[in-house]
Amino acid sequence: LPVYPPFLQAWYRDFKTNLPLGIMDVERQVFGAPIRKDILQRAVIWQRDCLRQGTHSTKNRSEVSGTSKKWAPQKGRGKARVGSHRAPHWRGGGVAHGPRPRSHDTDLPRQVQELALRSALATKFAQNQLVIVQDVHLETEKTKDLKAILEKNAWDPLAKDRKQGHSILILTKDHKNNLDLASRNLQKVHALTAEEILDAGDVYNIMGHETLIMDKEATEILQTALKPK
Amino acid sequence: MHSILKSTCTTFRTYVTILQKPRILLGLGNLSDNPGATKQRKRVGRGPASGHGKTCGRGQKGQKARGGNGKPRRGFEGGQTSISVAFPKRGFHNRNEKTYAPLNLDRLQHWINTGRIDPSQTITMKHLLDTRCVHGVKDGVKLLADGSHYFKTPIKIEVARASQTAIKAIEKAGGNITCRYYNRLALRATIKPEKFWKIPKFAAPVKAKDIEWYSNYKNRGYLSKKLAGLPVTQANAQMAARAI
């Protein structure tokens, strides 16, 4: 039986003006989950392993172009005995045990993936890097409008000290066309949906962006999906 | 806030009931697994300082220092007959097999003659064990007919199995034999009743072959409908009631 209250309180704000509109309850088991940096590391490594292309290739001594003729007589030369002209110790020879195209995918248990997501969201929540907004609604698809909003709201208090803007990840329920187009040319701003994060177990994007802006619907989706059974 | 001057150790005990904020801002740059989670692999032949350079842990020369496996084939013992050739695999081990302790009729007759077994009572496997007629009851006692023409005493006996000749010999002498199914619990309750505060109900056979065997009057199986003069034991009474 839980002896602690099942909910935490979080502000939800207006996206354009950053004014707090009210307080909402969020699941403690998701946004107050244990912050396990070892599990976050495992999840990030696993995710990046799966992203690897694995298209590295070398030629071994049989694949390098050249004949397999014995290059010099065994005896009589007064020099080292030689066989193939493309052996690895020869200039122009094949690579011994070189890289081969392969998959770098690894497995991470599903429950560890879920714990990592909960831990990542909890980290963002605890470090005041999580902003829940009422709704992410943009009138136009113009990048300068979005940029103006983000700069005005200054969700990262260190924005002044940085040369470039801080990185922002915006999570919504469905893909919003205006948001996608407006954020496309902003290098540090990315827009994803909550389902994409859940499908991929995407801890890398959550931890890799400094500010996480979620709309209320996305918060609901993440909570219900990640709440431990 | 994110000063590296402070301790970079961000490990802290995590409890679900206590919300903790990391001392240093956690980002992609300071994630790490727990100490001891990973171990560097051994790479041989990379210089003397590694401890595994030059001979790479193989010592000096000899067959085992060479490339490839170092032996002609796996399991080779230098020419001595290898263990797999000397003791080859054979057959399989049947976990459900039952072994019965054999008891021949001449031995039983001798025990009766010397007064170690009382023929006026029903002879059960407990009597046979206690009087050392059989030295151990494995999965039951099977009555066999060696020396059956010496067997002249009428007895009432209840065992796990019996051979056809033994059945004939007992009935020719005027006795009565029943073969009963015992599982481990029933056997234990029969031969060591002192271990039970209450004798449990004996289970019916489960496997089809056992049911068939014990329902057959030819075997004097206790489930067979023809069996009239059953030795009266607690479990048998219940069985008889159900069978008839």
Automatic annotation (TrEMBL), chain A:
Compositional bias ranges of the Basic residues kind: 76-89
InterPro entries per record: Ribosomal_uL4, Ribosomal_uL4-like, Ribosomal_uL4_dom_sf
UniProt-recorded name of the protein: Large ribosomal subunit protein uL4m
Pfam families according to UniProt: Ribosomal_L4
Protein family (similarity comment): Belongs to the universal ribosomal protein uL4 family.
NCBIfam families: rplD_bact
Keywords in alphabetical order: Ribonucleoprotein, Ribosomal protein
Entry keyword annotation includes Mitochondrion: no
Parts forming coiled coils: none
Disordered, as annotated region: 55-106
From TrEMBL, chain B:
Matching SUPFAM superfamilies: Ribosomal proteins L15p and L18e
An example molecular function term from Gene Ontology annotations: structural constituent of ribosome
Keyword Ribosomal protein: yes
Coiled-coil region list: none
Residues covered by region (Disordered): 29-82
Alphabetized UniProt keyword annotations: Ribonucleoprotein, Ribosomal protein
The UniProt record lists the keyword Ribosomal protein: yes
Pfam families registered for this protein in UniProt: Ribosomal_L27A
Record-linked HAMAP family: Ribosomal_uL15
Family: Belongs to the universal ribosomal protein uL15 family.
GO CC aspect terms: mitochondrial large ribosomal subunit
GO biological process, one term: translation
Residue ranges of every copy of the Large ribosomal subunit protein uL15/eL18 domain listed in the record: 102-178
NCBIfam families: rplO_bact (TIGR01071)
Biased composition (Gly residues): 48-70
InterPro entries: Ribosomal_uL15, Ribosomal_uL15/eL18, Ribosomal_uL15/eL18_sf, Ribosomal_uL15_bac-type
Protein name per the record: Ribosomal protein L15
